[in-house]
Amino acid sequence: MFTPELRKELESNNIPLTEVQFYNSHKIELNRTHIPPDAISINSGAVNVERGKYIEEVVIRKHTPGVCSSVNPMIYLLNLNRTTIIH
């Protein structure tokens, strides 16, 4: 698990987070609503219509590899299988 302590240990050993391989420990489900029909583009996942609203669903499987693409003191960006997650 990526913790503040692990981050400090990596930084104290001069290991940039952008050079560390990450894996998500749980399945991640992302949903987005109010997508204009002309803006829908699906590489993977699904788009459902529920009560007249378009809902895009993307599932990132457990243990999907990812890399950290950007870091600052408060947040970092992880790219997991071509999906960006802000933490």
Summarize the structure.
The radius of gyration is 16 Å and the shape is elongated.
Averaging pLDDT over every residue, what do you get?
Answer: 76
List low-confidence stretches: none
The description of the largest β-sheet is: 4 strands, antiparallel
- How many distinct domains? 2
Strand tally:
7
Which features would summarize this protein structure in a list?
87 residues; mainly beta
General description of the model:
The protein is mainly beta and 87 residues long. It folds into 2 domains: 1-25 and 64-87, no CATH class; 27-61, no CATH class. Helix content is 10%, strand content 44%. It has one helix spanning 4-12; strands at residues 21-23, 28-33, 46-50, 53-60, 65-71, 76-80, 83-86. It has a 4-stranded antiparallel beta sheet with strand order 1-5-6-7, with no helix packed on it. A 3-stranded antiparallel beta sheet has the order 2-4-3, with no helix packed on it. A hairpin with a 4-residue loop joins strand 5 (65-71) and strand 6. The longest helix is centred in the N-terminal third of the chain and has 9 residues, at 4-12. The radius of gyration is 16 Å and the shape is elongated.
How does the SSE layout of this entry go?
Layout: H1 4-12, E1 21-23, E2 28-33, E3 46-50, E4 53-60, E5 65-71, E6 76-80, E7 83-86
Antiparallel strand pairs: 1-5, 2-4, 3-4, 5-6, 6-7
